[in-house]
Structures are given as C-alpha cells and as structure tokens.
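Notebook, p. 212. Picked up where the previous page left off. The plan for this session was modest: take the two constructs that came back from the sequencing core last week, fold each one, and keep the raw output in the notebook itself so nobody has to go hunting through shared drives later. Recording the first one now, exactly as returned: residue sequence, then the structure token string.
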Amino acid sequence: MISRKLFVGLLHIGCFAFLLLGCNYNPKYKLPIIGQQTLENGEVIDHVIRPFEFIDQDSNIITNATYRGKVYVTDFFFISCPSICPLMTKQMLRLYTHYEQEPQLLFLSHTIDPRHDSPIRLKHYADKLGVTSSKWHFVTGNKDSIYNIAKDYFIAVQDDSKGTDPASLIHSGKFMLIDGTGHVRSFCDGTDPKSVEKFMFDIDQLLKEHKSEK
C-alpha cells in the first residue's frame, strides 16, 4: 500500500507537471483523478465523493445532485474560526469573483461547527460576502456526516474538545476541485495566493475538458 507521504508527493508532482503545460487547453491531457482505485467485479473504480445531504444558507437541501454535471470548488471552515478561515475566505471570494459569470463552476463550503453555524448564521455570513446563494452554498448538517465527507475530499478536520472554545476545531486549509461526476481532480493551499493562482489553471483546464465532452 502506498504511504501517505509518497501519495502526497505524487500529487504535487502531478500538479507541477500540469503547470509545465501552460494555461492552454490540451485535449490530450486531463487532470488526474485523485484517490485510491478499487476493484469491483473485475472493474477498476475511481474514487468518488459519496452521497451527501446538507442544508444551505437558504435552508435548501443540498446533495450530490445539486452539483451533478458541474465543476465545483469545495472547502471546510467555520464562522468563528480565529486562524486560517479569513485567509481562505478571501481566496475563495477571489475565485468566486473571477468565475462569477461561469455557469459551469459552483462553490461548496462546509462548516465544521454545525452546533453554532445554523442556516441563519450562514445566510448572514454569505450576505456579508455579497455572494449569490445559487452559486456558492454554505452548508451545515449532522456533525458526523460533515466530518466523514471531509475524508472523501482528503481534508483533515478535527474537534479536540467537547467545549465551546473555537480553538478546539481544527481543519485543513485546502481547496479541492471536483468534476461533474464527483471525482477529485486537483487541490491547492487556500491560504496561499500563489497556490490559488496556480489552482486557477487547473480550474480552467477542467472547465474546458468538461465543455469538450458535452
């Protein structure tokens, strides 16, 4: 079995190889599907995001079907986060603004503090950012479901305490790029503007790939 360290190294090599291609679309090149493959009845199955159901800032039910056939960027955060979340939100908002007129790209942010981040609080948060709810869904739900789905996105989340201290909630600052069939295709450090800038090349590549297949 491949070690985690080697796996992460291979991912970075793959992303670097893509950057060497430049920003022009190459139909012979596709972003890799990230994750371990499984074998079912003699067929190789790629990693895919499992079925999910959450509630967004408008109290609408959000599922895999909401994003089916669309490319989307996802992350994990919480409103009272005292550390990396403001940096991540700034960069996610940067992506939102850049792709605001791109109907094939959506956004999905999961709170890891569902105890406090109700749909009403998420609505207020989204309104302060000035984003459209149909474009960027901020979701809450069952805590176990949120923490389990994070594993599908290869994002680490952790609650180190039973108390109410926001510092007890820990999460990765990664952004993940998902294709229209639920495969993870790329990632970046959402706290690093340069990493996000490179990530935009991957988004453009996947959007062109997605449109070429229609």
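Okay, moving on. Second construct, recorded in the same format:
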Amino acid sequence: MAKMKFYTNPMSRGQIARWALHEAGADYEQYLLEYGETGDGGMKSADYLAINPMGKVPAIVDGNAVVTECAAICAYLAQRFPDAGLAPADNEVASYYRWMFFGAGPLEAAVTNKALGFAVEADKEMMAGYGNYDRVVDVLAAHFDANDFVCGNRFTMADVYVGSQIVWGQEFGTVTPKPSFAAYAERVTQREAYIAAKEIDGKLIAEAQGAD
C-alpha cells in the first residue's frame, strides 16, 4: 500500500489530521507548507492549489483521492482503516455524526466568532445557526457530563476531532473551562497516538522557532 501524502504545517489544524493518521495507523509522508507563500512549499503555490483550492492545510492524498477539512479527514481515515476500530458501531452512528458535525459547525463557528470579538445579538441568533456561544458550550459540556467519550464509553475517531477542539480550547482559553471538559481532555491526551503525533509537531514547531 502506497504511503498517503499529508500536507500540513505544525502550527495549524494539521495537528488534528496527524493525530487521526496515527490513530488509524496510516503510513504517510508529510509535506510541510508555509502560510501565504506562492512558491514551492507554499500553501498558495500552484501545485498545492491544485490539491486544495482553498490554499490551506491540512489535506491528505490517498492514491487518487483528495480529502480536505479536518472532520472529513477524520471520518475518511476511520472508514479507510477499519481494523483500527475507530468507526462507529451501529449503535454509535447517530452520536458519532451528530457530535462530529456539531464540532465542525456550531462549536467551530461559535469559538471563532468569540475569538474575533463578534457576539451574536439576541434577535439575530436564528440567523447565526448556532444561537450563541454560551449555549453551544453548555450543550457540549452537558454531553460530557454524562459520557466519557463522544459515543459513550468508547473512543472513536469523532473524539479526535471533538477532542482536539476541547484540548486546544482549554489550553488557549477559547472554550470556557468546565469540569467535564477538563476530564475529557485528560482522557484523550493520554492516548499513545495523541502523544506521538503531538511530539512530532512539537519538535517541528521548536525547529521552526529556532530558525527564526
């Protein structure tokens, strides 16, 4: 089986995709890209725009298949490597997709808007789709008050995506601290795949900062 091509930057959401690759046990070759650059090795280069016209990372290329967007990459890898046991069982499908898309939709939008200083006015909440930031956070926290993982008691690939959002949110203060979030973050960050992937990106970041 040919290696997957993994396009990333260590200071990006590519960290989510790398964790997913390690959880799946995928054999991959990394390609590090720089923000805003149009030449070779840049996210805005012609070669990379042919892969992802959005000009952002991460992206994976698996033979002729191209997958972008972190949630899609996670879901793809879970299905692509069934022996890893990260796809949902029949009784987990609803929670798996519900909360993965909740993370990619309401949570991502609410956290980003809050970080940008944008608050949805009460009479505009229906237009925003997610309502307001506090409701999004409270709904997700309530889920982890009652469940160890996205699908109950078992780790699935949905926990890579949702878990990344929670771990980063707690670390950088973009997601309101909650006891259930702290406990959930502790569980997912103890996984061998998370530790291995984080170590790689940590070294790449240190090397880049040392070269500046």
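Notes on construct two before I forget. The two ends are 38 Å apart (CA to CA).
Flagging for discussion at group meeting.
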